[in-house]
């Protein structure tokens, strides 16, 4: 009986993970341990751990203090962030490299079941070598159990993935199925097959960062929505994001008593946005002018920069913002921009977050690469997302909305609720200059002074076809106003739609053009 280990000793052993040497190795890489990360994420003293004594399926089950791999490489439990309940799992690289075995995977799956049933967000902290090779198909089965819960919880509870180290193989699909992916710049990477496998199969030599680093996934692949310089910054980003999100699809987004006057005029917008259609400007400055206290949380900042999406508050209520970005590619829509916007729109619709759309686009990007890449199919995703959404939808045309892009950007024809335009906005099948070049080709060719004729015809086209009062006269716009009234008009529209209910046709689900 003298060598019997106490429960306190067992608990302490379990909480030590892989032991001091492996914890030191983790710190030497500039990485925190799983428990340090959980403590940084949650309100102090609120973490309640579950399944602390779980062992790998093939481990010796005698709890005799002999160094068994308690937790099986993942810390799971629940706690609070800013007083709100969340469920958390954090892979522990000091235990079996954080590899995902059967018991490890089922711990995560059971935690996700609790989150789903309790209606609280789930946050995964990833630092793992991937599926555990020595457990074979059992580790793959555990991955599949997690994927299924990702899908079943989608649109019911927010799901956040924080990538703080390696995330490889089949395990990468769980973050990809979640709502938002964060990646740390130095140590995080995601890929299906590592550099050694790539070299063996394709003879291509590539390093970890080039193959699946944070910059690649935040800027090129679009897998990651947030990029962080370090783990502390990443956790702060995640907390900031959660402050805009409801705990589940049956509760409203969190309201914060506003400190910014809802009737505040916005005269600087007339300065920020040039009247000339071909002059660039940063639409983020427009968002800052209309948002409460100028605060805007941009999502997917590094990807498809010709469109901007993110969260703000207007009169204390969270809203989703979708805005063309004239600073990049003149604000045209293309394949990546369509994917980025459609995903964001559908998230907001899932969690009752109203959408404000700011429109300033010349249309879709032309060219063989876009057509071959399926811009028609990708653009249709935005149409589907806007038309499907039943949340309050308010849009404002700032300068121009031409061609199919006018329809796509939350127009009245896609069930937009309230549609506005500034007084100098242009709405048409195409820009006045391009239209005149086609419609008046012969007249321009025969004119003694084609520049003068073109200028005259362009003005006639604006007066006859492109000005916003024509759309307003057809009921396609609810109001036309000066930039100074923008914040007030949008807040009034959102307030009127606060209790909006719009039933959808009875069906299992639609078939979005993926």
CATH topology of the largest domain: 2-enoyl-CoA Hydratase, Chain A, domain 1
Low-confidence stretches: 60-67
The coarse overall form would be elongated
Through-space gap between termini: 64 Å
Number of discrete helical segments? 21
Radius of gyration: 26 Å
How many individual β-strands?
17
What oligomeric state is this?
A: single chain
**Which secondary-structure class do the elements indicate?**
alpha/beta
Mean pLDDT: 92
> How many discrete structural domains?
3
Strand content: 15-25%
Key structural traits:
514 residues; seven-stranded mixed sheet; 17 strands; alpha/beta; 2-enoyl-CoA Hydratase, Chain A, domain 1; 21 helices; single chain; 3 domains
Topology:
Elements: H1 7-15, H2 20-28, H3 34-41, E1 48-50, E2 74-81, E3 84-91, H4 102-118, E4 122-126, H5 137-153, E5 159-163, E6 166-168, H6 173-177, E7 180-184, E8 189-191, H7 195-202, H8 208-212, H9 214-221, E9 226-228, H10 231-242, H11 269-272, H12 283-290, E10 296-299, E11 307-314, E12 317-324, H13 335-350, E13 355-361, H14 368-372, H15 375-388, E14 393-402, H16 403-408, E15 418-422, E16 426-428, H17 432-439, H18 441-446, H19 450-466, H20 468-473, E17 479-481, H21 486-496
Parallel strand pairs: 3-4, 4-5, 5-7, 6-8, 7-9, 12-13, 13-14, 14-15, 14-16, 15-17
Antiparallel strand pairs: 1-2, 2-3, 10-11, 11-12
